[in-house]
Specification:
Layout (H helix, E strand, L loop, with lengths): L34 H21 L1 E8 L1 H12 L1 H9 L2 E8 L5 H5 L6 H8 L41 H12 L2 H18 L13 H9 L5 H6 L1 H14 L2 H22 L2 H8 L16 H14 L7 H19 L6 H6 L1
Keywords: Signal
InterPro entries: Sec1-like (IPR001619)
Protein name: SCFD2 protein
């Protein structure tokens, strides 16, 4: 969008965690980092310089965290970047933040934002890191329940040549979910009216089923499909996201995180872990609404990130041991461990 640019995540690029007896983070320079991390820093600096060159930027860098300081210092001293800053016409402030200082932000489910949910639950577009596949079968006469149907090419979110779709995407990013789906309905009704399609406008809450029924009006009209293809892809992305099983789980996560924040304020860490324990279920005991092993790892990262300093002691050790046992049992009972669980084990 005009205000936000999403770049592919650097999955391998995490700050070193401070170990006992090692140098303090403040003393570490690029030379003290392991070779692969040094190489990753240099690649990142080169990529950032290329991006800033394309945007014609003269940046002023700020850093929060030890690794961020190294990246900012490397960028400041990088010869091509120095040359670029002499001639660039646009100014920008760049803030680097160590990811380990904001783990709660990375794993939390805060936010009532449709764009975030679409990007989180729909499968990635092949060859892309920040765009998703939108199933387009609903716009065709081909009726199949096979979700992996690859006869029809997938749609995506990037619609630079469709002004209505660009406006709708801004709504998905900037409005609350309820308002965003109302905008989707409004755009759909306007498009259908322009094409003289027999649309019946209904008031009240917008449901994914209602949007689907409106989309089906375009199905046998090639001219209407061609004129509004970008818009239809975005609305299909919204419909598929709202119907996705992961979305009800998203709301569960959000409720649980809020409850945790209240509990942490009133009680100690062991009681929070004891609360979590009965929810850890093995594959055979789980229903579709229960948390999976990955979900628990995400929750644990969230809990330990928001709780601050933890008082150690026998009670905490015992509670942690029980959680570990339950998690190990659940991971071992997985019939087909996900790639993430395989990597961890």
């Amino acid at each position: 969008s005009a205000e936000l640019c999403l770049l592919p995540a650097l999955a391998v690029f995490l700050p070193l965690l401070p170990g006992p007896g090692g140098p303090s983070p403040a003393e570490i320079g690029l030379a003290a980092l392991p070779a692969d991390l040094r190489a990753a820093v240099r690649v990142l600096v080169g990529d950032l310089d290329a991006l800033f060159s394309a945007l014609g930027l003269r940046e002023e860098s700020f850093a929060v965290g030890a690794l961020s300081k190294i990246v900012a210092a490397e960028l400041a001293g990088y010869a091509p970047a120095r040359n670029r800053r002499r001639t660039a016409t646009n100014k920008a402030s760049v803030v680097f933040v160590d990811r380990t200082l904001d783990l709660a932000g990375a794993v939390g489910h805060h936010g009532d934002n449709l764009a975030e949910k679409i990007l989180s639950v729909l499968p990635k577009l092949p060859g892309h890191r920040t765009d998703v596949m939108v199933n387009m079968v609903e716009l065709t006469a081909l009726q199949t329940t096979d979700e992996t149907c690859s006869i029809i090419a997938p749609g995506c979110l990037a619609q630079p040549n469709d002004p209505a779709a660009k406006t709708l995407w801004e709504s998905f990013m900037n409005l609350k979910q309820k308002e965003a789906v109302m905008e989707a309905r409004r755009h759909l009704v306007e498009a259908a009216s322009r094409e003289n399609l027999p649309i019946k406008m209904s008031m009240g809450e917008v449901t994914p089923e209602q949007l689907s029924s409106y989309i089906k009006l375009f199905r046998n009209n090639l001219k209407a499909l061609e004129n509004h293809c970008g818009l239809l892809q975005l609305i299909l992305a919204a419909v598929q996201t709202l119907k996705h099983p992961q979305i009800s789980k998203w709301d569960n996560f959000l409720a649980f995180e809020r409850l945790l924040l209240q509990t942490i304020g009133e009680s100690k860490m062991p009681s929070v872990l004891n609360q979590l324990l009965p929810m850890i279920k093995s594959y055979n005991e789980r229903t579709k609404d229960d948390y999976t092993c990955e979900d628990f790892l995400v929750l644990l990262v969230y809990i330990y990130s928001v709780v601050g300093e933890i008082e150690s002691g026998k009670e905490l050790d015992a509670a942690e041991e029980e959680v570990k046992k339950a998690l190990v049992k659940a991971i071992c009972d997985e019939p087909e461990p996900s790639p993430l669980l395989q990597k961890i084990t």
